[in-house]
Amino acid sequence: MEVLRDLLRYDRRFLIGFIITVLVLLVFPLSLLSPYEPTARRVVPTNLPPSWEYPLGTNALGQDIAWNLIFAVRNTLIIGLLSALLSRMIATFNGLISGYIGGVTDRVLSTITDSLIVLPRLPILVFLSFVMRGQLSIWGIALILAFLDWAWPSKRYRSQVLSLREREFTETALFSGMSTFSVVTREHLPFLVPYIMADVISGFIWAMGMEITLSVLGLTSLSIPTIGTMIYWANYYQAILRGIWWWIGPPVVVAIATVIAFYLLSVSLSEFLDPRTRLQRIKVRPEMG
Amino acid sequence: MPEQASLLSVKELSRVFILRSGLTRTRIAAVNRVSFELAAGRPEIFSIVGESGSGKSTLARMLLGLLEPSEGKIIYKGRDVTAIRRRRDRLAFMKEVQPVFQNPFDTFNPLKKVETYLYETVYNFGMTDNVREADRIIDDALRAAGLSLVEVKGRYPNELSGGQLQRAAVARALITQPSLIIADEPVSMMDASLRMSVVNLFKELKERLGVTVIYITHDLATAYYVSDRIVVMLRGNVVEQGPVEKVLAAPLHPYTRLLKESVPKPDPKDKWEGEVKLATSEGVEYARAGCKFAGRCPYVQDACIREAPPDVEFDGRIVKCHRVEEIASGTAQPAQNGSAPPEALRSPKAGSQAG
Amino acid sequence: MHLLKRYIIPRLIQWLVVIFVGVTVAFIVPRLSPLDPVQNTLNRMAVYGLMYPEAVESLRATLEELYGLKGTVFEQYIAFWKRLLTGDFGPSLSVFPTPVIQLILQALPWTIGLLVTSTITAWILGIVIGTLAGVYSESRFSKVLETLVMCISPIPYYIMALTLVLLFAYLIPIFPLAGGAAIGLRPSFSWTFISSVLKHGFLPAFSLVIISMGWYFLSQKALTSTLVASDFVTYARIAAVPRRTILYRYLIRNSLLPQATDLALGLGSVFGGALITEVVFSYPGIGQVLNTAIFQGDFNLMMGIIILSVVGIATGALIIDLLYPLLDPRVRYH
Amino acid sequence: LPVDIPRSELLIVDQVFRYSVAENFNVWLPVGPPTPTRQSLITDTLWYIDQQTGEWINALAKSEPIYNDDYTRMVVELREGIYWSDGEPFTADDVVFTVQTLLANSGMRWSAQLNLFVSEVYKEDDYTVVFELKQPNSRFHTFFTARYDAVYIMPEHVWSNVANPMQFRFWPPVSLGQYVVRDADPAGYWELFELREDWERTSVGQVVGKPGPKYVLTIFYGPNERKVIAMAQHELDLLIDLDIEAFQALINRSETARSWYPDFPFAWPDELDVRFIGFNLDRGDFYADRDVRWALALALDMVELQTEYIGGVARVTPIPEPGTPLLSQYYHRPLESWLKEFTIMVDGEPFKPYDETVPQRIAQWARAQGYTVPDDLEALKAMFGIGWWKHAPDVAEKILLSKGFRRNAQGRWLTPDGQPWRFNIIAPPDEVDTFRLALGAADQWTAFGIEVDVEALERDPFYARNNLGDFVATSAWGAAGGGLANAVVDKWQFMQHLHSDYYRPTGTPSAAENNLRIRSDELDRLIEELGAISPDDPRALELGQEFMKLWVENMWSIPLVSFKKFITFDEYYWTNFPTSENPYGQPLYWFIGSKFVLPHLQPTGR
Amino acid sequence: MSLVRAESLKAYYITKAYGVERVVKAVDNVTLEVRENEILGIAGESGCGKSTLMKTLLGIVQPPLTVVGGRVVYTVDGKDVDVTAASPQELEGVRWRHVSYVPQGSMNVLNPVRRIKHTFRDFVAHRVQRMSQAELVKWAAEHLKSLGLPPEVLNAYPHQLSGGMKQRVTIALATLLKPKVIFADEPTTALDVIVQRGVIQLLSRIQREEKNSLVLVTHDMGVHAHLTHRIVIMYAGKVIEEGSTAKIFSAPQHPYTQYLIGSLPVIGDKEYRVSAPGNPPRLDRPLTGCRFVDRCPKAMPQCRQAAPALVETGKDHKVACFLVSPEEEKESA
Ligand SMILES: Nc1ncnc2c1ncn2[C@@H]1O[C@H](COP(=O)(O)OP(=O)(O)OP(=O)(O)O)[C@@H](O)[C@H]1O
Ligand SMILES: Nc1ncnc2c1ncn2[C@@H]1O[C@H](COP(=O)(O)OP(=O)(O)OP(=O)(O)O)[C@@H](O)[C@H]1O
Ligand SMILES: [Mg+2]
Ligand SMILES: [Mg+2]
């Protein structure tokens, strides 16, 4: 809490990011209040511009864009966060094991990781969703995205661990009788936390971009509202040509705002969590000759 | 000495590294057929000294089981350390042999409280399961190292001074009541006054708790001050080994002599005379077939460059030198005008040999 | 000799393994598709004309043969490797029997032109601006710049591309809507052709530059900040070494190596095309071909492109790894 | 746009898609290269039927096919005075060579089908070709009779030297149409055609007697919004189709752009397919029950579907046959009285489901939108179709209750085994009306208490799922249950696929277009009888009408509306496109038959 | 004559992170001078502010380090330059010509991707007029030779040199333009004894030959004994004793200095040595009184109230301790 207060008070980036994030996160409680089912169509008159009754107007499918947006953001957040968390979990696990245990294990895991890295992700992603479309719930998308997005972070974590392994405290831990598992999770993981934090955000941003890409190509379940499917439908009904800005505008703006907010949060958080600055905050490190 | 009486016996221990740099490749025997024995039941401080890159840390890491030897054996209380595989055996070994590292600031994870490691050690080695009891054990260990639990409790590494940290490190090592502590340059990062306090601590450990300490350093003055026996290493080889009073007070090997002379004496009236000749790159010396010191030795002869010198027992110590007797008797003549041996100042590029 | 044995050969083996795995995945993934290319063809033919059911059956057999889809998956896999090793990617299924390689080669110049240019531009811009921002990290300009990059680069690419199209092709129509060059122009070295290509390529390239520059910028800035704080730069500053020297010879030169890896990977992935870019900007290139391949269930074409980009990226990484010791005097590898 | 060609001589048409292989004109390959527009400009076949007028055109053939009595032999007399663009005369040798080449190369288009029937083909003289058939076929000429396309004739003098016809690129092509290729984009975005100087020596020259635009440029601009912009900027004269939103955006921007009608309902309504929602009848569940399908049909509100979902622009049809002026003359209008009297039994009570007020109600809606529509009922029927089924959810409810369905506390339907009733409709989003009708049906059924969702699929997976029967409901098009729409009275072409010989169970690809897995002895009988007679036999019409009735009774699929297209043109540079005011031919410029329409275009002089 | 003077210098690290402001008084009211042709040693425990003092003397003051009081004056060609107030251009003008610097941990001060000769060029080319590259290299080679270093190193990359060699190259780099004052911060700390000896010898030779002044910071009293003429002892940001090397070693007056000298081990002497107990005070806490008071065996109540001033206790000798008044000093002398 104190941390939060400090960050809010002293880091403007964090403040901005925080406010937007809170607003964005409001969609979760708000979505419970919706008078409509998320997938319902024809519940309001079509194609109305914003008004008091429909603050963001309505779309050609007969949906209230404001509520639709709330569901869309919620679902996109779920996809993005789930995929980012999942992939970083795999990455962390793989990176830590690979980096710490080394040897044959490392070689095998690294080869797998490297092979995944050279695979062109987008084509495969597009292809997979093309194949599995229809069955692709938001969880499904999150899973596929997660599967395709753990290799790079894993490689980064691995190299981090490699250098941490050389640090003396690793050996202190070892000689304190800690098991491999404890060394990895309790000694090394805390150092990775800021990286992972920042990485989860970039994973989120990637996943969100991919969700939008896939949806815009029409490769997801189109009746589930997400930022991507909103744009899809707006495009489908020629919102741009017809100047229906209240349909195409909100998802675009919210997408940009969310991404920036998360990014700001990650930058200031990882700066805050960075061991160097963290130490600085506690006490100046005495140097020795 | 019968096998049982030996605490640690190192036999013909070697470790080879292969270094590649650019297009070249160098083979380095960072530890080359090193042998020594520490007796059980007779605690001592055993120093290993040598200039930078002489293989001290490599040796220490092998002794601790952190690095696989290329050849040779390490027998601790009758067990081959290199053959330990199972975690239970490793724990048993670690209970007996504990390290103290060079950089007190890096010995503990800066993100965790120092006491964590103390408790970990207590619990993992089954010293006790009881919290109170653990506190007591830790406090005892800390007191033995000149600290106390209250001073340490709740503190992060950066809240303690270097000296305190190094003491905490020693205390942690003491928790398991080890028979052997291996300290790799435990004071090199410290200023003079801290140095003495840590070194004094080792002395106390030996005397009060009967712990044998392997003290690795390049500070000859403290080595002399604390240790009983000493080993002098040069490019992976032990060149002189014996009781510290003999080896350092009256060194026989020219390298030991050089080392000793190079220690600046804290006395403005006693300054160096003559200029020292410095080593060329490590690689050249490691690569030389003969005596690794040949490039710098004032008594160098052709044989020194060609052949590795034998271990000669002399005056209660073992010296690795072709001309030890002559030198001891003072009859050895320095090489002509003390000039540079062939490869003394080669261009740095030639420093490592194309492999 | 040892270098060869100890370094180059293992690295080459790793390269081969990675490619092997990648290619195998490329073989498997399309086969996960419920789409049967033969049936696809039949379906599509049925849309256009009368098909007697008996005729369908005989055609199905013929097509299976022609498409190389006879036999078990394993047999197909073996046959696939045999063909691949002779450099044959097989015929495209959607525009049978045009060889896949021909489709790829036809699109490749556009893609390479677009992606190589934009990758390199983004790289150089990112490095230069990133370095300046890293050096003058306290200056207002640098802060504004950083905020700008920070806010632009994470924007989902599709949205960015869409916005550009909206702005510069619809609202302010200064750039053409589609294609790689104006109609009626054939590739030549004339100014008309080149300027047309530039005009058509500008927006897609611009969008790519903006997006990828962000990454280079941020990483370069981070590298530079580390370097600026490093001992040798501090020392040079204390010694009042001229700023330009510090900038070029100390900061940029030292950060170039890690950045070169990124560049190599970036260039290696050129062969995969830029799917979204090419779709959004209607640009003729590999991405466009891939798009068609995916939506028409053209296995062979998909595999061809995926394999090409796997090889591209793996080779990019290989080359940079092999060159690294030559580029960086320090590198020691164990 | 090409700099060196005056715009007044250039017709720019939408290329439909980008050609992935440029410079390949081997149009005899199984699925490619893609042919739109090319085929009408540079290829030719024997006969055409204009689907707008139903007119039979002898193109390369001089006269209609001549069959022997048992339909095992067809003789074709060819037109003289037709030349290839390289100056070679077109003769019987070309036709014989084409057929023989196709017969010999089993992977080529039409090969499999020709092999099914042709035992021998030879020329009697330079302008007479004889086909000997393996089995009687009174409709063998349909292979050479174009609606979209038909067997293209190859130049023997070029192809006889070709070693492997499957690999041959035929570039630059030698043309049999009135145009030649002048230039083509290697990237596949555009192709430029030029009128032959000797255009009179082609079938078009001889039949129509007028040249078309001097140059035709086909170009692909990308998605619809780009085409709209291009047309608004007068950089596109003719485009294939738009969704209603894009179309409206276009006419808001351009004074000169229009489609078939000058005003509402704008679009060309005479395409030959029907949009329908079909169920897989072979899943062993209640969808196989005719009454359930009837209940579903009655739960739909056609007026709302036609207006709110597709903008009022299409003709409704209760039978599986598009209500084009030509076809409704034979089917819709004559069946009207039958439809009115048609009765189904609901829980033992008779119920007349037909609702003839549908066109009026659509017109009402249109007026409310501010469109002007005729008051005359006949004109409305021509515009919006004759009528459809009543929106009778109460009746539907009764049917379902009688079948063991129940509503739960929330009013949602439970199937007879007590499960919530839910299903998906598969539909491809790029087939705009199909997709929107699916959305509409899903919305209406959901409102009725069934959980229905639409599963959007790309074309290929959509085809594949249909083909395998991997669906509960599909929103598709075609001749109601598959088969091929045609512009003739004879319905054999689309009925024959439904013969139970071609039935395949769910999970195996359907052998013909019987994706709905219909099986009916009565249907078999109709098909067999029709197949045995000449298409010109008056009995053919009777059988066709019987087929329609049978369909309605069984409600094998729910036909919704006729296929319409926003074929849109810009009259800024060119006029006299076929329109509702002047429906002289089909506006389908990418069909091979459009070659007979293009010569009618006139420059505006701009 | 003094070349460099520090007058009541106060240099604090002022940091502000997330609302926590901290002031580390690393150099607190330090006055000293560097005279012509002398080697001045600065000694003291780790973290007592030696490096900070050095940086301030050199005018390398960058946030968070701030000079909050006092000034540093160079005497360049007879004129005084106030370093604390000088513009960057002025500072650039005096660096390397008047003062130069051998930094702590010379291991990393050479650009790793440039050959040594290029580094030489980077450092001096802009300070000398009209000199071709070849001439420059020749000049550098001669300079190296005069320092007993092989000129071949000019073609090497830093990583190809050993630590000692790098340190000596850095020294060569700092002395090429024959500055009047050389500041060297822990030039030997990371080196082993043999290499350290080489470096020390090199420094003393340069000083002997050039007759310039050298300021040497190290906590290794042995090095001080061998090299310096005068020593300044720092403790917790303050100078507590200052005097000739001989005097400091033979008769240290401040209790801390006494501990320092007394605890030095010597080969051949195994007698027990005590070092100062306890830890130095934290510099980011308010400090009153003598900073050594907590560790001082002879602490008196007054030591806690006020900090003793640095007072002259004899010729060229100053001490800051209440125990040692100048009068007493005189009496005992
Ligand atoms: N992991 C390794 N891989 C390759 N070479 C190594 C490795 N570890 C040490 N060496 C080399 O082995 C030699 C001996 O190194 P070691 O660290 O044991 O020396 P040291 O005596 O501890 O030196 P210092 O006093 O600098 O700590 C050096 O040349 C070093 O470069
Ligand atoms: N950037 C900084 N921010 C805050 N405090 C600092 C900073 N740098 C140094 N300090 C603090 O200033 C005090 C003096 O540091 P300085 O480096 O001058 O000591 P030193 O005597 O050179 O020590 P050493 O012998 O370890 O080099 C120390 O307490 C240190 O922790
Ligand atoms: Mg070591
Ligand atoms: Mg310092």
Description of the molecule:
The complex is a heteropentamer of chains A (289), B (355), C (334), D (606) and E (333). Chain A starts with a helix and ends in a 7-residue tail after the last helix. With 289 residues, chain A is mainly alpha-helical. Chain A has helices at 2-10, 12-25, 27-33, 65-101, 103-118, 121-132, 138-148, 151-165, 168-175, 180-216, 227-236, 245-273, 275-282. The radius of gyration of chain A is 22 Å and the shape is globular. In chain B, strands 6-7-8-3-9-10-12-11 form an eight-stranded mixed β-sheet, with helices on both faces. Chain B has a four-stranded antiparallel β-sheet with strand order 2-1-4-5. In chain B, helix 4 (114-124) crosses helix 5 (131-144) and helix 7 runs parallel beside helix 8. The longest helix of chain B has 18 residues, at 192-209. The model of chain B is unreliable at 337-355 (pLDDT under 50). Chain C has a domain at 100-296: MetI-like fold (Orthogonal Bundle). Chain C has 13 helices and no strands. Chain C has helices at residues 2-31, 37-48, 53-67, 73-85, 100-135, 140-152, 157-171, 191-228, 231-238, 243-268, 275-280, 286-295, 299-327. Chain C is globular and about 90 Å long. The mean pLDDT of chain C is 81. Chains in contact: A-B, A-C, A-D, A-E, B-C, B-E, C-D, C-E. At the C-D interface, helix 2, helix 3, helix 5 and helix 12 of C face helix 3, helix 6 and helix 16 of D. One magnesium ion binds next to helix 1 of chain B.
> Main sheet of chain B?
8 strands, mixed
List the bound ligands. adenosine-5'-triphosphate, magnesium ion
Specify the CATH architecture of the largest domain in chain E.
Answer: 3-Layer(aba) Sandwich
Number of strands of chain B: 12
Descriptive terms for the model:
heteropentamer; B: 355 residues; alpha/beta; eight-stranded mixed beta sheet; four-stranded antiparallel beta sheet; 14 helices; disordered C terminus; D: 606 residues; alpha+beta; five-stranded mixed beta sheet; four-stranded mixed beta sheet; 19 helices; binds adenosine-5'-triphosphate; binds magnesium ion
Short description:
The complex is a heteropentamer of chains A (289), B (355), C (334), D (606) and E (333). Chain B is an alpha/beta fold and 355 residues long.
Layout of helices and strands, plus pairs?
The complex is a heteropentamer of chains A (289), B (355), C (334), D (606) and E (333).
Chain B: E1 6-21, E2 24-39, E3 45-50, H1 56-63, E4 71-76, E5 79-80, H2 87-96, E6 97-100, H3 104-107, H4 114-124, H5 131-144, H6 149-152, H7 162-175, E7 180-184, H8 192-209, E8 212-217, H9 220-226, E9 229-234, E10 237-243, H10 244-249, H11 254-262, H12 282-287, H13 302-306, E11 311-314, E12 317-320, H14 324-329
Parallel strand pairs in B: 3-8, 3-9, 6-7, 7-8
Antiparallel strand pairs in B: 1-2, 1-4, 4-5, 9-10, 10-12, 11-12
Helix pairs in contact in B: 4-5, 4-7, 5-7, 7-8
Chain C: H1 2-31, H2 37-48, H3 53-67, H4 73-85, H5 100-135, H6 140-152, H7 157-171, H8 191-228, H9 231-238, H10 243-268, H11 275-280, H12 286-295, H13 299-327
Helix pairs in contact in C: 1-13, 2-3, 5-8, 5-10, 5-12, 5-13, 6-8, 7-8, 8-10, 9-10, 10-13, 12-13
Chain D: E1 10-14, H1 38-42, E2 47-49, E3 56-58, E4 66-67, E5 73-77, H2 92-104, H3 111-117, E6 118-125, E7 128-133, E8 145-146, H4 156-159, E9 179-184, E10 190-195, H5 203-207, E11 215-219, H6 224-232, E12 238-239, H7 244-253, E13 257-258, E14 274-279, H8 290-298, H9 302-309, H10 325-330, H11 332-341, E15 344-346, E16 349-351, E17 354-355, H12 358-368, H13 377-384, E18 388-389, H14 393-402, E19 406-407, E20 413-414, E21 422-427, H15 432-448, E22 451-456, H16 459-468, E23 473-478, H17 492-495, H18 521-532, H19 539-554, E24 557-562, E25 568-570, E26 574-575, E27 602-603
Parallel strand pairs in D: 1-11, 2-8, 21-22, 21-23
Antiparallel strand pairs in D: 2-3, 4-5, 5-7, 6-7, 9-10, 10-11, 12-25, 13-25, 14-23, 14-24, 15-16, 17-18, 19-20, 26-27
Helix pairs in contact in D: 2-3, 6-7, 8-14, 9-12, 9-15, 12-13, 18-19
The complex binds adenosine-5'-triphosphate (2 copies) and magnesium ion (2 copies).
